């Protein structure tokens, strides 16, 4: 491998294995595009995000810090997460064309008065106007590819293999899991990279693609579905069934992230679809019984 130094010098390095952990716009992955039968897709969602700081009030958190705060508005949303310094990091996710309509400080206040009026006194009008224009709205990209390896010399991990939008909070965890899985396979196959790397691709590609899809879905759930009474009723049914059948019926978010189990992401998706069918059948039976009364 040839490395180009900042001063322009070239250095040739010999390695048993090149590990591409260089992010969503991976230079290593770009070289994979030269090989036959390498599949790759990159998708920018039509929404961007910007961040706004909610300061402490009298030295304490402005809101309860033990929750993920969400302002769902169907086609967009704002969330707030607590920081160690007792601020909240507020993130506004919204279509780019909506950001483009908010061009002045006065329009920022008008927008927040219409959609997030309770946030204005917590953030402060002047701070809100300042933070809104600090940086332009940033894009979000999702990457899928296959395979994750080239021969017995190179392998992709983390965002280089499966960059995802941030709505499931699993990007870093999925990258760490890549390391864990690769290490386990290396132990099983005695570090024979000609066998290790194809097995790593076989195991991880379905999971990398599944969590990328779950992250996309969760954005719709967070910004829109939570406003639906029917969706909230389904959640109630899920939670009730989980209480009486904790090993069989498990809420999707719990399966995929909260408990940090070793359950593979693509199996989570399969189980989720099965649970959805079970729930629909139960609701159908109950509605039929009520109609017969």
Automatic annotation (TrEMBL):
<dbReference type="GO" id="GO:0005741">
    <property type="term" value="C:mitochondrial outer membrane"/>
</dbReference>
<keyword id="KW-0285">Flavoprotein</keyword>
<keyword id="KW-0503">Monooxygenase</keyword>
<keyword id="KW-0560">Oxidoreductase</keyword>
<dbReference type="GO" id="GO:0004502">
    <property type="term" value="F:kynurenine 3-monooxygenase activity"/>
</dbReference>
<protein>
    <recommendedName>
        <fullName>FAD-binding domain-containing protein</fullName>
    </recommendedName>
</protein>
<keyword id="KW-0521">NADP</keyword>
<dbReference type="GO" id="GO:0071949">
    <property type="term" value="F:FAD binding"/>
</dbReference>
<dbReference type="InterPro" id="IPR002938">
    <property type="entry name" value="FAD-bd"/>
</dbReference>
<dbReference type="Pfam" id="PF01494">
    <property type="entry name" value="FAD_binding_3"/>
</dbReference>
<dbReference type="InterPro" id="IPR036188">
    <property type="entry name" value="FAD/NAD-bd_sf"/>
</dbReference>
<feature type="domain" description="FAD-binding">
    <location>
        <begin position="5"/>
        <end position="213"/>
    </location>
</feature>
<dbReference type="GO" id="GO:0070189">
    <property type="term" value="P:kynurenine metabolic process"/>
</dbReference>
<keyword id="KW-0274">FAD</keyword>
């Amino acid at each position: 491998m040839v490395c180009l130094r900042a001063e322009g010098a070239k250095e040739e390095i010999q390695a048993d294995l090149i590990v591409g952990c260089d992010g969503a716009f991976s230079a290593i992955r770009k070289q994979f595009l030269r090989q036959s039968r390498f599949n790759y897709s990159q998708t920018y969602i039509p929404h961007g995000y910007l961040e706004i700081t909610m300061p402490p009030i009298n030295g304490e958190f402005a809101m309860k810090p033990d929750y993920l705060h969400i302002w769902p508005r169907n086609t967009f949303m704002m969330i707030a997460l607590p920081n160690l310094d007792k601020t909240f990091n507020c993130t506004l996710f919204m279509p780019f064309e909506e950001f483009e309509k908010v061009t002045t400080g006065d329009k920022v206040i008008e927008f927040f008065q219409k959609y997030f009026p309770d946030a204005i006194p917590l953030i402060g009008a002047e701070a809100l106007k300042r933070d809104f224009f600090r940086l332009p709205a940033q894009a979000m990209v999702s990457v899928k590819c296959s395979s994750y390896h080239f021969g017995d010399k190179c392998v992709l991990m983390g965002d280089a293999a499966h960059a995802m939008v941030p709505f499931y909070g699993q990007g870093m965890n999925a990258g760490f899991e890549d390391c864990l899985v690769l290490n386990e396979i290396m132990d099983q196959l005695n570090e024979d990279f000609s066998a290790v790397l194809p097995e790593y691709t076989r195991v991880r590609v379905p999971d990398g693609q599944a969590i990328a899809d779950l992250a996309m879905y969760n954005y719709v759930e967070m910004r829109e579905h939570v406003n639906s009474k029917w969706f909230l009723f389904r959640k109630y049914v899920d939670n009730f069934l989980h209480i009486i059948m904790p090993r069989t019926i498990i809420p999707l978010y719990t399966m995929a992230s909260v408990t940090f189990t070793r359950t593979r992401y693509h199996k989570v998706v399969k189980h989720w679809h099965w649970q959805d069918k079970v729930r629909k059948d139960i609701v159908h039976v109950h509605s039929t019984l009520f109609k017969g009364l």
